Amino acid sequence: MLDHYRTQLTRIPFGIAVLASLLVLFMPASGVPSAPPGTDKVVHFALFAVLAATGRFAGFPTAKLLAALVGYAAVSEVLQGVLPIGRSCELADGLVDVAGAVTGLAVAMLLRKISGASSR
User: Fold this and answer.
1) How many CA atoms lie within 13 A of 86 on its CB side?
2) 8 A C-beta contact, residue 14 and residue 57
3) Distances 22 to 25, 113, 116 between C-alpha atoms, Å
4) Element (H, E) at 86
5) DSSP class of residue 30?
6) Dist. CA 112–CA 82, nearest whole Å
7) Distance between start and end Cα atoms, the chain
8) d(Cα 58, Cα 5) in Å, to the nearest integer?
9) How far apart are CA 8 and CA 21, in angstroms?
10) Alpha helices by DSSP H, the chain
11) 45, 99 contact by CB (below 8 A)
12) Whole-angstrom Cα distance, residue 60 to residue 80?
């Protein structure tokens, strides 16, 4: 019975990461703070790394999670270009999103491996 609640609790960080990504990716250009060039790439990378890591810790299968995040990266970039929010669609941002997702999955797998080895 406690496993059910533990599983539900592990999804909260993923839900928060999804909400944060929606806010960051679809905020109108007027609300985006000015920053040095390249900062947006760091934000994209970190955002998708957190989505991937929290998704794995929430128990989503790696292949399905990665496919969903690649799709989300593509759709979010297209929407940034077509929605009237003053944002642009950039292939580089999409590629950085995917790199962040792959890195987040790798970090999650490494942490699980380390924690599994230390709990023996």
Assistant:
1) 6
2) yes
3) 5, 30, 33
4) none
5) G
6) 39
7) 24
8) 12
9) 20
10) 2-26, 39-57, 62-82, 91-118
11) yes
12) 27
Residue 120 has pLDDT above 60, yes or no: no
Q: How far apart are CA 36 and CA 25, in angstroms?
A: 18
In the numeric block, which tokens belong to residue 101? 């997702």
**Which residue in 120, 57, 65, 56 sits closest to 98, CA to CA?**
65
| C-alpha angle 16-11-51 in degrees, rounded to nearest 5 | 55
Domain boundaries along the sequence of the chain: 2-118
Q: What is the pLDDT of residues 6-45, one digit of tens each?
A: 678 889 999 999 999 999 999 999 998 888 999 999 999 9
The pTM of this model reads: 0.90
**Residue 86, token pair as written in the block:** 């003053």
Give the list of residues 6+ apart from residue 27 with CB closer than 8 angstroms, or none: 85
Instruction: Give me the residue label for tokens 């950039």.
Output: 90
Q: Which two tokens stand for residue 53?
A: 């890591």
Q: Are 80 and 25 in contact (CB under 8 A)?
A: yes
